[in-house]
Amino acid sequence: MRKSFPAEDLARDDRFRRARTEDRINDPRNQFLPEGRRAGRLTPERPDAAHAARQMMHGIFVGEIQALEGAGRTVWDFDDDDAPFALKLDMARQCWDEARHTEISVKLGEWMGTEVGEFAETTFLYEAACNPDPVLRLTGVNRALEGLAIDVFNTMREFGQACGDPVLEFCEDWMLADEVTHVKMGSDWLRRLTESDPGRRERALEFQRVVDKLFSFRGFRGEGDDSPVQLARTFRRMAGFGDAEIDTIAADAETDSQQEGWKAPV
Amino acid sequence: MADASAPRSPFAPWDRRELPGLFTVEESARRVGHYAWIEMRLFEALGGWVATVPELDVKTMLGRHCYHHAWHAELWHKRLPELREMRPERMIRAPNADLEAFVAALTEPEAPELTIEKLVGVYRVLLPRKIGAYTYHLAATSRITDGPTIRSLGFILEDETTDWREGEMVLQSLVQSDEEVARAARRQGGLETLITRAGGIAGPGSLGGEPADSKVGAAS
Fold this sequence. Notes:
The structure holds 2 protein chains of 2 kinds.
Chain A: H1 21-25, H2 28-31, H3 49-77, H4 85-112, H5 124-127, H6 134-163, H7 166-193, H8 198-216, E1 221-222, E2 229-230, H9 233-238, H10 243-257
Parallel strand pairs in A: 1-2
Helix pairs in contact in A: 3-4, 3-6, 4-7, 6-7, 6-8, 8-10
Chain B: H1 25-49, H2 56-82, H3 88-91, H4 97-106, H5 115-140, H6 147-174, H7 178-198
Helix pairs in contact in B: 1-2, 2-6, 4-7, 5-6, 5-7
């Protein structure tokens, strides 16, 4: 088995459909959504709320698979000199957590009326887990990707509350607890592994910012009413993000969302 | 009510634990080091394979089992300093080159159509060997002096047997045709040859005999 596994080789059964990230972002259907189907905060009042929630749920599902695969590759790709044993233990623990989230997501998807393969899968989440430097990989996955997961799960949890769907709220709340733990792991390892190498820490944080900008998708995630996924400040603080860091993510997302001619999908 | 001041044996009548056991401190540490090594190689391989298998139930099973073996490795890591081994990394190694060759062969398959080969190696060859070696350790070591190892073995064996059963059931559901039966058998035969040459996960003596028996009484 190779060390380092490219996103295009991720193994899937026949139900899955792969889409290129750039095609998804440039999909003209997202740019010319008719009135009433405009992207915005995910609330039950949105005319397309059920469809948007199912689409987001499917996105969570494939995201969990990729997070599981990414954590697994970190366990395998690095030898003991590159990644301390304790870090690999944390990543193995994360494998278990993401495996549970995958299972939860399949059942929640069925509960919400979608099925495996109804929506296309892009692999940009896994791509964040392909960096050859374990510190940058961990920062990309455990702070940017898992940070996004905090925002997404909190958004879905609140949507479940607003809809009066106790199953959705219950499941999202449990997954949210795990994601806060994963971000804390990432923050801890970033600090420990770069204690004597501020340059490497700086590069890792810059990589995180690049990934975070990608995850904000020109308004997909932010604090404005047009953002389907809301930045979860309280849970991010619990996970070890500083206010300045959260402000930067919010500011980057706001700047990105103001680009014309594009509306966020979902 | 019984007289509280009446002398009682420190061992209940049903407590049949005895002294001594077959293992010295050094022998127990040697074996624990090999256990840590194989658990590490296994959890790394399971983690790496997650991305390579298309079957969703296998993907999540590997993710779950990956953590089980990582936790076993952690238990063995923690046990080594308690066995007077202050540089655990010195002991965490393969017992011989043959077991290294076995692990290299075990972890070789990558292609998505090789799920059967991946699972056969783990669930029909390695896990039965681990269960055997751990069960032998449980039976051979002193249940009094080596109590902490016994406790870890109990947790680990519970995991191993549960995971083995789950992996075997998944394999049975994947092996459907004559050709797949033959593939599984070929793979099992090849890996059995290699692990037999190695003498098991702790080398010769994994299930008793040399070198464990030769150590009996060595420390006294």
